[in-house]
């Protein structure tokens, strides 16, 4: 959901971050300036009390000179908001403050982590050994889906 008056984020050229907010880790992805391909960046440890996670992602936003951030909302299969959605929005609110005037937008990301885990298992990687990679792959799926929907 974009903020009023910020519809130009969808068409504006520039890099964007994709964020998969989990209870333990946050996957981060970035796209190229033309908005064609999302790639993994890193996995950030979740810090709900100290805010170091928001600080690190704000640093990444500055490093990549992003024009926008896309955060996945893990809605239920019945399209309802649960505890995870509230946590993602709370994180997004803190990030919005930290990186203003860069716009933060939310998108439905049902099953992206499950899909990413299945793809990694199919490639021969164990889920336990690949947890941080799964979070990055989920962030790539969130951002790539957002990019593809705008073409």
Automatic annotation (TrEMBL):
Listed InterPro entries: RNaseH-like_sf, YqgF, YqgF/RNaseH-like_dom, YqgF/RNaseH-like_dom_sf
Localization in the cell: Cytoplasm
Gene3D superfamilies according to UniProt: YqgF/RNase H-like domain
GO annotation terms (biological process): rRNA 5'-end processing
Major localization listed first in the record, in broad terms: cytoplasm
GO cellular component: cytosol
Catalytic EC class: hydrolase
Domain YqgF/RNase H-like residues, every copy: 14-116
Annotated transmembrane regions: none
Highest taxon of source: Bacteria
One family name in Pfam for this protein: RuvX
Enzyme Commission (EC) number: 3.1.-.-
Keywords, in A-Z order: Cytoplasm, Hydrolase, Nuclease, Ribosome biogenesis
One Gene Ontology molecular-function label: hydrolase activity, acting on ester bonds
Function: Could be a nuclease involved in processing of the 5'-end of pre-16S rRNA.
Family per similarity comment: Belongs to the YqgF HJR family.
HAMAP family for this protein: Nuclease_YqgF
Protein name, entry field: Putative pre-16S rRNA nuclease
Protein's organism: Gordonia polyisoprenivorans (strain DSM 44266 / VH2)
Taxonomic placement: Bacteria, Bacillati, Actinomycetota, Actinomycetes, Mycobacteriales
């Amino acid at each position: 959901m974009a903020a009023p008056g910020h519809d130009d984020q969808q068409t504006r050229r520039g890099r964007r971050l994709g964020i998969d907010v989990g209870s333990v880790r946050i996957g981060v992805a970035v796209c190229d300036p033309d908005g064609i391909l999302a790639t993994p960046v890193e996995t950030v440890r979740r810090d709900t009390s100290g805010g170091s996670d928001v600080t690190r992602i704000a640093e990444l936003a500055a490093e990549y000179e992003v024009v926008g951030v896309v955060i996945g909302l893990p809605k239920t299969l019945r399209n309802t908001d649960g505890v995870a959605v509230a946590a993602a929005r709370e994180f997004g609110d803190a990030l919005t403050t930290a990186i203003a005037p860069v716009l933060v937008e939310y998108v439905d990301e049902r099953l992206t982590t499950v899909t990413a885990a299945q793809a990694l298992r199919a490639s021969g990687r164990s889920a336990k050994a690949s947890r941080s990679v799964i979070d990055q792959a989920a962030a790539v799926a969130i951002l790539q889906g957002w990019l593809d929907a705008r073409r």
